[in-house]
Design brief:
This protein has 563 residues and is α/β, with parallel strands linked by helices. The protein is 50% helix and 13% strand. The strands form four sheets. A five-stranded parallel β-sheet has the order 7-6-5-11-12, with helices on both faces. The protein has a four-stranded antiparallel β-sheet with strand order 1-2-4-3. β8 and β9 form a beta hairpin. The protein binds one RNA strand of 77 nucleotides through α7, β9, β10, α17 and α20.
Length: 563
Amino acid sequence: MANCIKLASDELNELLLDAVGRLVADGKVPSEPIPAFKIEIPADKTHGDFATNLAMASAKAFRMPPRNIAALICDALVLDGSCFERAEIAGPGFINLFLRRKWFSGVVENVLLENENYGKTDTGKGKRALVEFVSANPTGPMHVGNARGGALGDSLAEILLWAGYDTQREFYINDAGNQIEKFATSLEVRYMQHFDPAVEMPEDAYHGADITEHAECFIAEYGDRYVSVPSKERRDALVKFALPKNVAGLERDLKKYRIVYDNWFSESTLHKNGSVKKVVEQLTDRGYTYEQDGAVWFKATEFGADKDFVLVRANGIPTYIVPDIAYHYDKLVTRSYDKAIDILGADHHGYVPRLKAALTALGAPAEKLDVVLMQMVMLMRDGEVVKLSKRSGKAITLVTLLEEIPIDAARFFFNTREANSHFEFDLDLAVEKSSQNPVYYVQYAHARICSIIRNIKEESAECAVSDKPALDLLDKPQEIELIRHIAALPVEIDAAAKTYDPSKITKYAAELANLFHKFYDSCSVKYAETPELMQARLTLCDAARQTLCNTMRILKIDCPERM
RNA sequence: GCGCCUUUAACUCAGCUGGAUAGAGUAACUGCCUUCUAAGCAGUAAGCCAAUGGUUCGAAUCCAUUAAGGCGCGCCA
């Protein structure tokens, strides 16, 4: 039987329910429904391995003081044959439970049995999930916000995989619509400027150097062949030339960031196969649209949104949200994912209810769409905010960022905060004093463990005194603490998957590293009192290494064996 | 004006669907390498949990109001 916190917690839940059931049967407490109660892991270790507020939560229902109820429950608890050794009453009526020594040895054995799979759960078994993230505009380079979204989305997808979901990563390419028109205009102007400097770039077009480069490459290949053709032909040629290069660039840069997508989904396919048109038609057929000032509006307020919005402009061109609706309809209905997750910037928050309203109106299961809103990244340099501006061409791009700071650091750092918190990214700190970054602390722990194992294996070939290490020799507080935390990985992964929060995993990793460093400091492996103890500790080191390595694999961070 | 997010130590942030003396990392100060990696460990100092009311056995956590900051509210995406 695999030992982990999750199973112990489940077992405790049953034991408690049994005990209360007996009390009710014996008439010691009134026959009332048992109120919801919590089983938690106390922060203070003297409060046991688990604690429950059952007695306090049921005080009202049983009309008795919490401590009296706690005493009755403790008497009625049958711990024989369970993984618990004893129960104590504490504070205002908490019941604290202590695990048996043997349980801890089981944890270590289990990690080494499961190895690179330790931590995986089957919570999402049989369910398909899609995580869409970054989906940066292909008209220009990616910015720092995309760096956060990338680290977040990619780690989240990995967490879902570990939690048992059949998960895919997807990038949505906005290769149609107004942005592409603007892209075309920008390219066209740069192209024409080469032959006639008097041509001016509109204020709202893209002024970046990348546009000029594209134009120059185009000229190198085609020369003035497109100067005197109709504008449409020229624009199409330029876009057809530059856009695939940009998309390939996105793919290449993201790969450098260790992000590889399962799907690249083109918006243009939704136009070509008629899905976009169908959205408007279907909403109209169902009577959810109306005309006003020559535009087609969707009655979003009938589906819980704050206001109606335009689907088709007076000029006959649909707004950006129509292909988005078609796209999400495709995820939820055509491809029928059980879970579709979008990672979006917080500036999209008003847009989410509208999208969902339209999906609901189309009969799609909008509740299967979960949007993780990510707050802005504030870049700080010299104590001042660095403003991001795509137009100025001077914005810090993802590529520049990754040239400045190690990828390990970036991926870890962006996942140290919840998506929902504003992120202050100190460039000076990340660049100059990168050793302060917690990622090094975690990697150092891994390298240290490897070093210990390496040393012992080199020096004493006979380090294995028996096939089955005497793991119950591990009883120092630092050893127990370490094991307890190792045992928590599967719960932590489930929690991260449930709340869509990879920062739980970075916190877990940092805590694990910390507990290892403490263990290292007080429990020598090489100079253990007996060979048996040395072997037991060596085994624990290996389990800690494996656990640390697994969390770092989730975050796609290197596990260095030497530092 | 309306909506979303934020406000906890000097700085950056945790605090899990209300629970036991409010935590961590930086920065500051003090110890610890003639033994496995000191990128480490141990310790000290540092808080009116933005403010005020409310809900109850119990609130940093839930509710209301206020204040400060960020972001939205387009026939832009």
